[in-house]
Each structure stands twice: as structure tokens, then as C-alpha cells.
Write a structure and sequence with these properties.
Elements: H1 4-9, H2 18-26, E1 31-35, H3 39-47, E2 52-55, H4 59-62, H5 74-85, E3 92-96, H6 105-117, E4 123-127, H7 133-141, E5 146-151, H8 157-160, H9 170-186, E6 190-194, H10 198-207, E7 212-215, E8 223-226, H11 228-231, H12 253-265
Parallel strand pairs: 1-2, 1-8, 2-3, 3-4, 4-5, 5-6, 6-7, 7-8
Helix pairs in contact: 5-6, 6-7, 9-10
Bound molecules: 3-methyl-2-oxobutanoic acid.
């Protein structure tokens, strides 16, 4: 019998797993992440050297044309995860749990299993702070790797009253730090932090031992993620402040993705113009 995992350990660029990401945090080596929704783009993002590829429910907006991520279904994410998986060789594959797909422990487990078994995801991501501790614990108890998404939670857009920077008030910032610790204690393997002042990004990063990936969370987190279509200049209309168009001056999509990975590793992205205070 051939053990693929053991064989891969000897490769020059072995596939990324949770241990790789933890080691990168410990070595203060920035983790470069991007979203992807199909096999062709996944292949390019992987070749560019992205460490993590997320099949985000942002696909509801950038692929399906909705105004929010709310209409995305588990079947949508399973389908896109399955096709993205075919394009990857090295990157770690994470998939989003869509809106209302993790309201009970049993429902969360059933849907996470679908994303892993049918889609090929290696980790699932769900939105929520301490309110999701029970769900994260339940998934972790079943050895399902979990990324906890805090800060701006796009699935809560209608409750929040719009996509806004979170954690500007001291109490809310403290709550985010406490939530990240509670989620880590519950078994979360990664914290993803969206749209917060850089100081909050730094505080959350320092509060937990698991990697903290930021999107609009400033430079002092363990890694960065962007929506692929945003950083390639495909998305139309007004974009969030944290987006940089890496197609500017890049001859190909691959070159743009490589420039992003390089900028994250060298910490030249995000610059002050991409951050919130
Ligand atoms: O759905 C998504 O693409 C995300 C990113 C914004 C991190 O959650």
C-alpha cells in the first residue's frame, strides 16, 4: 500500500496542512490565502504559491451575482469545492459553511461532513463569535478542522445594517479578543478576522496561538486573504478599502497572483492605505 501523505513529506513543496500553518505562525512567516471558485483559477492560485485556498460564500456575490452571501446553499459550496479541489496540488483547501447551515450541532456536523466528503475540503469556516463556541466544540470533537470567522460577518449583513468596519469601540474590540480566545479553547484551528482596525488585528493575533488570517485587519496578523475577483480587478463597482488590484502592471493572472503572494510574504501588502484605524 502506498501512503501518499508519507511520500509527499519528501517533496520540495509538500502540500500545506494545519501543521504547516501553525509552523508559519511560529516562524512569523506570513500566510498567503486567496479564494477560488473553479478548477482553472484554483490551478493558477496554487501555482502562484498561495498557502490556503478558500471556497468562500463570496461566490454568491462574485459568481452568482447576488448582493449578499445569504442565498448561497450547501449544495453550491459542495459543487464549487469539488471543482476547486481538482485544481490544487499544494494549497490547503478550506470551504465556507453557508448562512443557516450550522444552527444546531447536528446540522453543522452533517453539513461539514458534506463539505469534506463530497467537496474534498480540509477545513470548514463558519461565522460567529462566542455564540458559536458549542458548534465549534462539537465539530472539533469530531476532528473536523474549523476556521472561526469574526469581525465583520457578511452573513449577518441584514442584522448589522450594512458592511461596516467592526471593533472601533473599545468594548467591541475587547469582545473580539475574548471571542477569539473562547473559539480557540473550543477547538478552532484558525481565526479569520474581517474588516477591523489594525490595532484590533494585532490584539487578536497576540491573544491566540492559532494562526489569525486577516482581510482588512491590518498588517500585524499571521496571514492575509482577499477575494480573487477583487484583487484581479474583475469585480465591478466600489470595492472595500482593503482591496488592492494586483492586475495593475501584471501581464497575466498568474503574475498578479504571484505578486500578491510575494507582497504578503514581504509584508508590503496591506499598506496603510488598505487599513482601518
Ligand atoms: O466568503 C469569502 O470569500 C470570505 C472572505 C471574505 C474571507 O469569507
Amino acid at each position: 500500500m502506498v501512503y501518499k501523505q508519507l511520500e509527499q513529506r519528501g517533496m520540495a513543496q509538500p502540500p500545506v496542512n494545519i501543521s504547516t500553518l501553525r509552523a508559519m505562525k511560529a516562524a512569523r512567516e506570513p500566510i498567503a490565502c486567496l479564494t477560488a471558485y473553479d478548477a482553472s483559477f484554483a490551478c493558477i492560485v496554487d501555482e502562484a504559491g498561495a498557502d490556503v485556498v478558500l471556497v468562500g460564500d463570496s461566490l454568491g456575490m462574485v459568481v452568482q451575482g447576488h448582493d449578499t452571501t445569504v442565498p448561497v446553499t450547501v449544495a453550491d459550496i459542495v459543487y464549487h469545492t469539488r471543482v476547486v479541489a481538482r485544481g490544487l496540488r499544494r494549497a490547503f483547501l478550506m470551504a465556507d459553511m453557508p448562512f443557516m447551515s450550522y444552527t444546531t450541532e447536528a446540522q453543522a456536523l452533517e453539513n461539514a461532513v458534506r463539505l469534506m466528503q463530497e467537496g474534498g475540503a480540509m477545513m470548514v469556516k463558519l461565522e460567529g463569535g462566542r455564540g458559536q463556541v458549542r458548534i465549534v466544540e462539537h465539530l472539533a470533537r469530531h476532528d473536523i478542522p474549523v476556521c472561526a470567522h469574526i469581525g465583520l460577518k457578511p452573513q449577518s449583513v441584514h442584522k448589522l445594517g450594512g458592511f461596516r468596519v467592526q471593533g472601533r469601540e473599545a468594548a467591541q474590540a475587547r469582545q473580539m479578543v475574548d471571542d477569539s480566545k473562547a473559539l480557540e479553547d473550543a477547538g478552532a484551528d484558525i481565526v479569520l478576522l474581517e474588516c477591523v482596525p489594525s490595532e484590533v488585528g494585532k490584539a487578536v493575533r497576540n491573544a491566540v496561538t492559532v494562526p489569525v488570517i486577516g482581510i482588512g485587519a491590518g498588517p500585524e496578523v499571521d496571514g492575509q486573504i482577499l477575494v480573487l475577483y477583487d484583487m484581479l480587478g474583475i469585480t465591478r463597482g466600489r470595492l472595500p478599502r482593503f482591496v488592492r488590484n494586483f492586475m495593475d502592471g501584471a501581464p497575466t493572472v498568474l503574475a498578479a497572483c504571484e505578486a500578491y503572494v510575494r507582497a504578503v510574504r514581504e509584508r508590503s501588502y496591506p499598506g496603510p492605505e488598505h487599513c482601518f484605524s
